[in-house]
Amino acid sequence: MARTPNIGAVARAAGVSVGTVSNALNSPERLAPETLERVLDTIDELGYIRSSAGRTLIRNASDGLSLIVPDLDNSLFVDIARGAQLTAAAAGRRLVMANSGFSSRDLVAGAAPHDTQDEFLGYFAEARSGGMLVCAMRDPTSGIDRIRNHVRPIVVVNYDAPGADWCTVLMDNAQVGRIAVDHIADLGITQAFYVSIPDVVQPAAERRTGMREAAARRGVTVTEVDAAALTASVGSDITTGLVGALADRARRGERTALLFLADDLAIGAIPVLRAHPDLQIPDDVVVMGMDGDHRPTGNDWMTMTSIELPGYEMGAEAVRLISAESDPDHAHEREVLPVRIRPGATTTGR
Amino acid sequence: MARTPNIGAVARAAGVSVGTVSNALNSPERLAPETLERVLDTIDELGYIRSSAGRTLIRNASDGLSLIVPDLDNSLFVDIARGAQLTAAAAGRRLVMANSGFSSRDLVAGAAPHDTQDEFLGYFAEARSGGMLVCAMRDPTSGIDRIRNHVRPIVVVNYDAPGADWCTVLMDNAQVGRIAVDHIADLGITQAFYVSIPDVVQPAAERRTGMREAAARRGVTVTEVDAAALTASVGSDITTGLVGALADRARRGERTALLFLADDLAIGAIPVLRAHPDLQIPDDVVVMGMDGDHRPTGNDWMTMTSIELPGYEMGAEAVRLISAESDPDHAHEREVLPVRIRPGATTTGR
DNA sequence: CTGAAAGCGCTTACAG
DNA sequence: CTGAAAGCGCTTACAG
Prior knowledge:
2 copies of one chain form a homodimer.
Chain A: H1 7-14, H2 18-26, H3 33-46, H4 52-59, E1 65-69, H5 75-90, E2 95-99, H6 104-108, H7 117-126, E3 132-135, H8 141-147, E4 154-157, E5 167-171, H9 173-186, E6 191-196, H10 202-218, E7 221-226, H11 232-251, E8 256-260, H12 263-274, E9 285-288, E10 306-308, H13 311-324, E11 334-337, E12 340-342, H14 345-348
Chain A binds a DNA duplex through helix 2 and helix 4.
InterPro entries (chains A, B): HTH_LacI (IPR000843), LacI/GalR-like_sensor (IPR046335), Lambda_DNA-bd_dom_sf (IPR010982), Peripla_BP_I (IPR028082)
Protein name (chains A, B): LacI family transcriptional regulator
Pfam families (chains A, B): LacI, Peripla_BP_3
């Protein structure tokens, strides 16, 4: 990069010292009005843009915040990112994001997660990030321990690490499972299939725990089914395997619930059920997902019952906790945000 | 931030000079194997992490790439971001993103765009970004001119600025409009409604141009309708206003096409049409969107005909162009990537 | 193969 | 209110 005008060039052109130029930028109230004006005019003329590297060197910290998200195809993380970015902007801080490319498929398949979470942790540590939000789908402890002293506040979002030495922002995943069961129990349904991925994925494990607890409490019999991925086509395949049993029950006048860990799975179930002459939604089968997609797709001819996840609030809260860390007697917090049901036609009929 | 161990601390502990520690990190082949090992061990023991600020100061450039996207709720930009980030990672470079919070609603409403594009341009210029991808929905020229000399290569994605002094990566928006009309003309349809937003949004303007050209060529009569936003509910409202005319035509045995600038609009049309007893899809009315959502929602009980946009390729190509800029006799390029139709049940019946 | 030294652009007490 | 000077952590010729 060709050398751009530096603070010395501005000082020379304005006939002041470099310290005065620096003060014009950082403490303008210290300058005589005429001096300030002359310096600012010179900055404009020269097209001077301060390099943040100098300040970062001195402070051993930059003032930008950084956010690592696992996967932008997941609307939860898009919501978290927006909540974080807008809250940061409102506080006058910039936030940049990195996508670590995490795929829950790896975990489900038992493969080592092939993401770049630790690479980005290192990258932001070298940049002396002024605060880091780590949105994790797997335990980030080892990666964070490595950079702990080089990045000021760290907040972990969406992963509950045992013995965490940082603030954590979570949603109440057990409540997700409980609410789903309570909803169908309220409809008088006593038999359900619960389609999820293996418990190596922490939110899946916690939702299952909540689901089982509510099922026992409400007297709902639940058959658990494993999905290999959270896609509509997997949802279709699994449902195809269940229609026989569902139709048998329907002929006996019994309703069945299909509870899917993700809306994408649930969406895949719909066409399979509609294609079956004996199965009406929601009279014979009710369907619900559990990660209500905020995205404005208005995705169906029938609205899908789902659970609204507090992604935006999680991101916003994480940024607030970053700011709270500058308070000297701050103690790390573990916040668990509530979820709520969004009833739709696939369970209530409208 | 408490002072972390610096290169001097490592040098002292390893009994070498700071230059040698630097070489261990940047040119390890220059060191005697034993020296190298001793230095690396010391780095490990001390938990030393290099600060990139020093190098940025010297080079007047950092090695990270940065990407500004207008809006993560738009799947096009999520695709671009993924294409860019994976291509960068494959080339051993890190890429960070910023969301400028652009809303096309502002433009459509005639309001000044209230985004943070220029703020982030300035932020990345202060960080001496090693390369910048600017995904723009409005003309970025003034913002870029301001930072032109402080950021090495700049590539603009998705905005065709007149007289651009940089590489540009575009999709063929005129082709989007042409393909849509050709598709319905191939089905023998001669009457269509075209629902778009005003031409202040550049892609909308270009698609309209392509649409008109194809309509003239194929003898299709098109009635143009203005939408205030690209949402399903706006699509529903507009369609509600059209069902009378559509039903009249259906009773005369004439098919009509509804072409929507965005899939979200088109999705909103579906339930309105289904609710009308005289209108069958696709026998009386065919429906298509024009920004095929890559996201894995499997969004409907009937697949929506749409146009596949080359978002991933645009992001990947933009990163390749960034690298190409380091070639001394590089000339700025303007690349226009093709689009293609994805036929679905809403026009072909399956 | 290794070390000593200059310098990148900035901020911050301190002196005046 | 302004200036002179030290120093942040690093890289890079250069000398040996």
